[in-house]
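Revision sheet: structure tokens.
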Amino acid sequence: MTVTVTRKGQVTIPKPVRDRLGINPGSKVDFEVAEDGRAFLRRVGKRTVKPSRFERMRGTATSGLTTDEIMALTRDGA
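Predicted:
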């Protein structure tokens, strides 16, 4: 994912990355630069909110399941 740096040196962290790392408004993040020039971003602190069953299933509907099968999976453990 490519983002643009503003004149103030700011970037917007793409939503898929924020969702994956559990970054919300007020979250603290840490940047680390490796010797080879790669930069890493990580959320500081532990994620305290367990992902919902819907978040856990995101992207899994590509496996050829029918709508009824998907609905049965989302209701499991409710």
